[in-house]
Amino acid sequence: MKANESLARIPVVSQTKYTDKLKISRKMTQIGFILMIILIPALGIFRIDVSSGFVVLDRQIWFSDFLIVFGFWLAIACTFILLYSMVGTAFCGWLCPQNTFSSLADKMTSRLLGKRAVIDWESNTEATVAKNKDHWQNWLKLVLQLVAVSMLVGLIPLFYFVPAEAVWSFVTLQDDARLAGSLHWIYTVFVFIILINFAVVRHYLCRYMCIYRMWQFLFKTNDTLHLEYDESRSDECAKCNYCVTQCMVDIDPRKTNTFDSCTNCGACVSACDSLKAKDSQKGLLRLKFGSRKQAKIASYIPLASIQRRAGWVLPVWVLGASLFVWGLLSYDPYHLAVYKSEIAHGDQIKQYRVHLANKMYQPGRIKVSVQGLPEGAYQITHEVAQFDTVGRQDVWINIQGDIHPGLHTFTVKAESDDGWTDSYRVQHFVKQG
Q: Domains (ranges, CATH) in the chain?
């Protein structure tokens, strides 16, 4: 047999490169969520005005806007309950900024100081800095990188308290009337707390102090997303603990319970898949909805199903969302109120304060008029209130001239250029003599 024919009989196996789609999806989700957190206040969808309260869609929300306030928080509460019930702690592993930046800090530490250079909270003797990387240059690089990340992350809360243009003025060290004088100190405190968190705390916040994780335990169902381990192939990983080393909360993914610290991040799934892909096999771990094969939970703690939970949560969510939308559609962009001037007891009231407010973060113009009083019986300090943005102005009405004694009813009317109108009835009493 010729050599060429012998070679032709040798089977050729083509091995495709393993692509960790789960890891890529998680990373893109994390980046997208961070961008969403920044864009929500930057685009005026939701932020906080320290002088007045919440801002929704560039609308200043007062307590009088009850439908918006109540509907918003009702819908948010139901959204979290559904999130708890369906994906459990997947929010922690896929969206939570704490985990995202803690994982980034872990990667920085691993690259500069070695894979075993982890935070040693539990006297782990294997947590050591690699000898060939234990140099002051690497430590300095790590500190500078952590400080840089902390400074960038510290800017995110500012978007929720000042407009995006003001944040840019703050970053570029420009003067801006919208920036408080103490903002630099507040930002410094933010950066310091974030730096300590990324440098020292990291994932231990998730394990021992996370409020979200504690709350989600109350809403777990029989069908909540969880890790499933293929025990029928347990002999394949008898001497392997690669999935354990990849877990950021230090649990064994092969022995998860109904209530544990697992964040459903999928790092262990990716680790096992990457090893088994070399043998063209599937990993032994996967994320799954539905009941657990071995649910380690006390029998006296009943767990509902997602369908049963959604049966009462979804109608309440629809109610909250409907109230919120209705509140936005019926929203008053301006506000009118009339007050009597402060006078000594027994004196004649001759002045009224017309209080006008623009609740929109855009220019506005309101015209004020009086109906029901004869000409010459009153004087308005200025009939037009001009607003460059959200704000408040007062217009004064002075009663003058001779008006016969008795009770006089007049109306203060306000009209904006964009069609908004409102009126306020006032009863003015004139004493005899």
A: 21-62+89-217 (no CATH), 226-303 (no CATH), 334-430 (2.60.40.10)
